[in-house]
Protein backbone atom coordinates (compact mmCIF):
# COMPACT_ATOMS: atom_id res chain seq x y z
CA UNK A 1 0.00 0.00 0.00
CA UNK A 2 1.37 3.39 -1.01
CA UNK A 3 1.04 6.40 1.30
CA UNK A 4 0.17 9.65 -0.43
CA UNK A 5 2.50 12.67 -0.28
CA UNK A 6 -0.01 14.64 1.80
CA UNK A 7 -0.14 12.00 4.52
CA UNK A 8 3.67 11.76 4.52
CA UNK A 9 3.91 15.53 4.91
CA UNK A 10 1.43 15.52 7.79
CA UNK A 11 3.33 12.71 9.51
CA UNK A 12 6.53 14.74 9.25
CA UNK A 13 5.19 18.22 10.05
CA UNK A 14 2.85 17.33 12.97
CA UNK A 15 5.60 16.09 15.33
CA UNK A 16 7.74 19.10 14.48
CA UNK A 17 4.89 21.46 15.38
CA UNK A 18 4.14 19.62 18.64
CA UNK A 19 7.82 19.45 19.63
CA UNK A 20 8.27 23.16 18.95
CA UNK A 21 5.81 23.73 21.82
CA UNK A 22 8.02 21.74 24.21
CA UNK A 23 10.91 23.23 26.12
CA UNK A 24 12.40 23.12 29.60
CA UNK A 25 9.67 25.48 30.79
CA UNK A 26 6.76 24.40 28.60
CA UNK A 27 5.35 21.04 27.49
CA UNK A 28 2.50 21.59 25.06
CA UNK A 29 1.65 17.89 24.84
CA UNK A 30 1.20 17.44 28.60
CA UNK A 31 -0.07 20.95 29.26
CA UNK A 32 2.66 21.62 31.84
CA UNK A 33 4.31 25.01 32.31
CA UNK A 34 7.24 25.57 34.69
CA UNK A 35 8.72 28.73 36.07
CA UNK A 36 10.94 29.96 38.87
CA UNK A 37 9.85 32.74 41.18
CA UNK A 38 12.77 33.60 43.40
CA UNK A 39 13.85 30.35 45.06
CA UNK A 40 10.51 28.64 44.29
CA UNK A 41 9.78 26.22 41.45
CA UNK A 42 6.28 26.63 40.02
CA UNK A 43 4.43 24.01 37.94
CA UNK A 44 1.07 24.80 36.36
CA UNK A 45 -0.91 22.03 34.67
CA UNK A 46 -3.78 22.21 32.19
CA UNK A 47 -2.01 25.04 30.40
CA UNK A 48 -1.69 24.57 26.66
CA UNK A 49 0.30 27.47 25.22
CA UNK A 50 2.99 27.44 22.60
CA UNK A 51 4.86 30.34 24.20
CA UNK A 52 4.70 31.37 27.84
CA UNK A 53 5.55 34.85 29.13
CA UNK A 54 8.43 34.81 31.61
CA UNK A 55 7.92 35.55 35.31
CA UNK A 56 8.21 39.20 36.32
CA UNK A 57 10.07 40.47 39.39
CA UNK A 58 9.38 43.89 40.89
CA UNK A 59 10.55 45.60 44.04
CA UNK A 60 8.89 48.46 45.88
CA UNK A 61 9.72 49.74 49.36
CA UNK A 62 11.99 46.76 49.97
CA UNK A 63 9.22 44.27 49.17
CA UNK A 64 9.95 41.84 46.33
CA UNK A 65 7.01 40.61 44.27
CA UNK A 66 7.13 37.87 41.64
CA UNK A 67 4.30 37.38 39.18
CA UNK A 68 3.82 34.50 36.74
CA UNK A 69 0.85 34.33 34.37
CA UNK A 70 1.45 31.30 32.18
CA UNK A 71 -2.23 30.83 31.29
CA UNK A 72 -5.31 32.99 31.01
CA UNK A 73 -6.80 31.29 34.06
CA UNK A 74 -3.68 30.96 36.24
CA UNK A 75 -1.91 33.85 37.94
CA UNK A 76 0.75 33.02 40.54
CA UNK A 77 2.08 35.85 42.71
CA UNK A 78 4.62 35.67 45.53
CA UNK A 79 4.79 38.86 47.57
CA UNK A 80 7.24 38.90 50.47
CA UNK A 81 7.17 35.08 50.45
CA UNK A 82 3.35 34.95 50.63
CA UNK A 83 1.70 32.89 47.88
CA UNK A 84 -1.36 34.06 45.96
CA UNK A 85 -2.98 32.10 43.13
CA UNK A 86 -5.68 33.86 41.15
CA UNK A 87 -5.89 36.45 43.94
CA UNK A 88 -6.50 33.91 46.71
CA UNK A 89 -3.90 33.76 49.53
CA UNK A 90 -2.26 30.39 50.30
CA UNK A 91 0.07 31.40 53.12
CA UNK A 92 3.77 31.91 53.67
CA UNK A 93 6.35 29.98 51.71
CA UNK A 94 9.65 28.76 53.09
CA UNK A 95 12.85 29.03 51.03
CA UNK A 96 12.97 26.50 48.17
CA UNK A 97 9.29 25.43 48.55
CA UNK A 98 7.74 24.27 45.28
CA UNK A 99 4.22 25.15 44.15
CA UNK A 100 1.90 23.02 42.02
CA UNK A 101 -1.24 24.48 40.46
CA UNK A 102 -3.02 21.38 39.14
CA UNK A 103 -6.34 22.09 37.45
CA UNK A 104 -7.02 24.90 39.93
CA UNK A 105 -5.91 22.95 43.04
CA UNK A 106 -2.89 24.51 44.75
CA UNK A 107 -0.32 22.37 46.58
CA UNK A 108 2.84 23.48 48.34
CA UNK A 109 5.72 21.04 48.53
CA UNK A 110 7.71 22.01 51.62
CA UNK A 111 11.45 21.61 51.40
CA UNK A 112 13.16 20.32 54.52
CA UNK A 113 16.39 22.05 55.43
Structure explained in plain terms:
The structure is a single chain. The protein has one domain (5-109). Residues 16-22 have low confidence and may be disordered. β6 and β7 (82-85) form a beta hairpin. The chain has 113 residues and is mainly beta. It is built from one helix and ten strands; from the N terminus they run αββββββββββ.
According to DSSP, the number of beta strands is: 10
Sum up the overall morphology in one term. elongated
Strand arrangement across the biggest beta sheet: 1-2-3-9-10
Question: Unreliable runs, pLDDT <50, ≥5 residues?
Answer: 16-22
Strand content: over 45%
Largest sheet: 5 strands, mixed
| Elements, N to C (H/E) | HEEEEEEEEEE
Q: What's the mean pLDDT score?
A: 82
Structural domain count: 1
SSE blueprint and pairings:
Elements lengths: L4 H16 L5 E2 L4 E6 L2 E5 L11 E5 L2 E9 L2 E6 L2 E4 L2 E5 L5 E5 L2 E5 L4
Parallel strand pairs: 3-9
Antiparallel strand pairs: 1-2, 2-3, 4-5, 5-6, 6-7, 7-8, 9-10
Keywords:
5-stranded mixed sheet; about 15% helix; elongated; mainly beta; 5-stranded antiparallel sheet; about 110 residues
Question: In a nutshell, what does this entry contain?
Answer:
The protein contains one helix and ten strands. It is mainly beta and 113 residues long.
Amino acid sequence: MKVSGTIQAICFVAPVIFLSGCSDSNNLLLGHVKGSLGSHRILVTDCYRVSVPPPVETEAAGQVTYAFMPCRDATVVIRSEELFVNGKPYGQLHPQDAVLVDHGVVSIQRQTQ
